[in-house]
């Protein structure tokens, strides 16, 4: 631990540390000073640094948080819903094409996954695409926000699925099990991919705004 010299002020310590160790950011300089003088609080050090910067005696930047790339974002907890959506879609496709209607009790797995696939996923991914981070109206309770997302997702699914069926009716494939199942899978995965990209862009924008005001 470095001993504080008699008559040496905190500003003197900061200037000396800057000259000797050449930190690039306020955070680095703060850590360096604290390592030498643990008794000095971080708040005191930061305030002294800001005062020196205002006096023109010091020029440092706040360390900006690194901007995550899309690959890193997709492996974070923020994108877990995207992989869950993909897994549910795949599981639903397997259950529809691999489990026969007379295969009891396995058919109940098909019913459950089919219900999620039709009544939840299309609407959820569509709502997620429109509002990747939050709904357009504010709620005071996080649980209420989740309930509203569920209600909107189910309602939007009930609107989207008939539209898909109507469009298929005018194609050579018609309204049959395979075409409508694959169409809904493509629709849900397309919306999910668009939503996760929008969520990533929103995350980058928030990170930049925080860094600019730091």
Topology:
Elements lengths: L9 H12 L4 H11 L5 H13 L15 H5 L5 H19 L7 H14 L1 H10 L11 H28 L7 H37 L1
Helix pairs in contact: 1-2, 2-3, 5-6, 5-9, 7-8, 7-9, 8-9
Notes on the protein architecture:
It is built from nine helices and no strands. With 214 residues, it is mainly α. The chain folds into two domains: 13-54, no CATH class; 70-213, no CATH class. Residues 207-214 have low confidence and may be disordered.
Primary descriptors:
70% helix, disordered C terminus, mainly alpha, 214 residues, 9 helices
Mean pLDDT: 82
Which percent band covers the strand fraction?
under 5%
Measure the end-to-end span. Answer: 30 Å
- Radius of gyration from the alpha-carbon trace, in angstroms: 28 Å
What's the total helix number? 9
Order of helices and strands: HHHHHHHHH
Query: How can the largest sheet be summarized?
Result: none
Can you tell me the overall shape?
rod-shaped
User: What count of structural domains?
Assistant: 2
Category from helices, strands and their pairing: mainly alpha
**DSSP, total strands:** 0
Q: What is the helix fraction of residues, given as a range?
A: 55-70%
Uncertain spans: 207-214
